[in-house]
């Protein structure tokens, strides 16, 4: 595995869609850790896209995307690819009885997850449109084929009608192997060259699936076949050059699970890890190409998205921290109602000093607006503190004065304020009543005037006055 990546830069992002299962009567999303270990080990960051309703509509929020790895999951909805073989011989199509038998035999895999289908097909098509590196393992290879117009066997055992190969073994998930024939001149042949059989280019692989590629999409070339003729690996020859950021590939078998017995982390063949190594190599190159393209359209000195932040010297870093604390305190005061310690009040001055010293700097309209907002927060916080001090002082003085009063004096004072409150309430009620009466009279006058203005006599009088004036 590669050495630790250089953490001084932002690492490329590889999206991986989770799979949903039920644990303790609740849905749980998960991704196989083998995949995550390999992605991290070769220098990329796995970003898990949760299989949650609605995620397919917000894939733009996961940008930038430098690579996509799709792996295990349920069967793909047949309606997404059946039309691709609508004109083909339907003799191999499964009967309702056979479909029911498949569902009983593969209950966890034969269920359809429409949300996962939608998320993964959209990601696959985005990769194909923008040449984003894509690696599909097992279901991920089937998604890739369907996204390009290919079709699938709904059940290999029934539709191929061959018992020559066992593609799934529920009793020995990791240990199960079956042979494949690797084609010369393909990436797979290059990765496993030292371990292929000299007679037929054979290789023993792990697999766990009951579906597979029926008709391979036109843009792809096969890399390996099982003895029953099932495609076990394919790629796009026009989109394969890891050093240039190009990688579009699907593997039906599981190279990540091909480990030696006894819980060992050692692979059956060195070529098993090459799929992930070359994939991440393409992901890194793709990110570098994207940054280079963006740099050509960014003003000099601007910071590119995903680029490392420039380092500050100790003095500048100290000032940055002080300013950041000042604005943070202002925010906390606003949310908490202005309660701060005396020592914290001095820290507020750093924000004001920063705004004053940068008033003449060359700022954009948006930056200037943002700074004014931040300054207003600091100033309002300071003003609020001063008002609290004044009110606090008055309250303390009142308490001290009343503490020296006798019980009778305090009772008289309370009675006085109660009487004043009652008088105030009565006067306010009278004023409100007078206002309401005046408003009612005004409305009545307006209605009377309106009725007069619309009467025939008033209309005739208005007309005569107009004639006389002329």
Short summary:
This protein is α/β, with parallel strands linked by helices. The chain is 47% helix and 14% strand.
Task: Estimate the strand proportion.
Answer: 5-15%
Number of helices: 14
Using the 3D structure, state the CATH architecture of the largest domain.
3-Layer(aba) Sandwich
Radius of gyration: 38 Å
- Work out the count of structural domains: 3
What global shape is seen? Answer: elongated
By CATH, the superfamily of the largest domain comes out as Class I glutamine amidotransferase (GATase) domain
- Structural class by SSE content: alpha/beta
CATH topology of the largest domain: Rossmann fold
* Sheet with the most strands, sense and barrel status: 9 strands, mixed
Q: Averaged pLDDT, please?
A: 77
Q: What level of helicity do the residues show?
A: 40-55%
- Give the termini distance in whole angstroms: 106 Å
- Write the element-wise H/E pattern from the N-terminal end onward: EEEHEEHHHEHEHEHEEEEEHHHHHHH
How are the strands of the largest sheet arranged?
A: 4-1-5-6-13-12-11-8-9
Structure description:
The protein is an alpha/beta fold and 470 residues long. It is built from 14 helices and 13 strands. A nine-stranded mixed beta sheet has the order 4-1-5-6-13-12-11-8-9, sandwiched between helices. A two-stranded antiparallel ribbon has the order 2-3. The chain is elongated, with a radius of gyration of 38 Å.
Key descriptive features of the protein:
single chain; 470 residues; alpha/beta; Rossmann fold; 3 domains; nine-stranded mixed β-sheet; two-stranded antiparallel ribbon; elongated; Peptidase_C26; Class_I_gatase-like; hydrolase activity, acting on carbon-nitrogen (but not peptide) bonds, in linear amides
């Amino acid at each position: 595995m590669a050495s630790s990546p250089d953490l001084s830069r932002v690492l490329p992002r590889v999206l991986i869609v989770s799979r949903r299962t039920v644990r303790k009567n609740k849905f749980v999303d998960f991704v196989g850790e083998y995949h995550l270990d390999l992605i991290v080990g070769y220098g990329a960051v796995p970003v898990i896209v949760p299989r949650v309703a609605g995620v397919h509509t917000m894939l733009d929020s996961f940008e930038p995307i430098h690579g996509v790895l799709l792996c295990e999951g349920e069967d793909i909805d047949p309606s997404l690819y059946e039309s691709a073989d609508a004109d083909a011989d339907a003799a191999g199509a499964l009967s309702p009885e056979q479909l029911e038998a498949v569902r009983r035999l593969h209950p966890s895999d034969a269920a359809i997850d429409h949300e996962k289908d939608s998320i993964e097909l959209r990601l696959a098509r985005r990769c194909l449109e923008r040449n984003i590196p894509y690696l599909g393992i097992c279901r991920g290879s089937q998604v890739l084929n369907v996204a390009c117009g290919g079709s699938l066997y709904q059940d290999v055992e029934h539709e191929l009608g061959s018992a020559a190969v066992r593609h799934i073994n529920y009793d020995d998930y990791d240990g199960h192997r079956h042979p494949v024939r690797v084609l010369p001149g393909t990436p797979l042949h290059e990765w496993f060259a030292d371990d292929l059989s000299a007679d037929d280019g054979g290789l023993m692989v792990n697999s766990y699936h009951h579906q597979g590629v029926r008709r391979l999409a036109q843009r792809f070339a096969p890399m390996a076949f099982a003895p029953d003729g099932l495609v076990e690996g394919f790629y796009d020859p026009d989109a394969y050059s890891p050093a240039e950021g190009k990688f579009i590939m699907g593997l039906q078998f599981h190279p990540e699970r091909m480990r030696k017995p006894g819980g060992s982390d050692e692979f059956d063949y060195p070529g098993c890890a090459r799929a992930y190594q070359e994939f991440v190599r393409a992901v890194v190159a793709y990110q570098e190409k994207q940054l280079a393209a963006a740099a050509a359209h960014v003003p000099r000195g601007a910071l590119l998205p995903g680029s490392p932040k420039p380092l500050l010297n100790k003095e500048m870093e100290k000032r940055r921290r002080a300013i950041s604390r000042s604005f943070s305190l202002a925010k906390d005061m606003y949310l908490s109602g202005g309660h701060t310690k005396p020592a914290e009040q001095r820290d507020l001055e750093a924000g004001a000093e920063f705004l004053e010293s940068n008033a003449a700097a060359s700022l954009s309209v948006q930056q200037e607006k943002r700074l004014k907002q931040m300054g207003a927060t600091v100033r309002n916080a300071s003003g609020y503190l001063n008002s609290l001090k004044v009110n606090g002082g008055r309250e303390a003085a009142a308490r001290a004065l009343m503490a020296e009063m006798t019980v009778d004096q305090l009772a008289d004072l309370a009675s006085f304020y109660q009487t004043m409150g009652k008088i105030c309430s009565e006067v306010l009620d009278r004023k409100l009543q007078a206002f309401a009466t005046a408003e009612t009279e005004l409305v009545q006058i307006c209605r009377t005037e309106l009725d007069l203005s619309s009467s025939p006599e008033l209309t005739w009088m208005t007309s005569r006055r107009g004639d006389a004036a002329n």
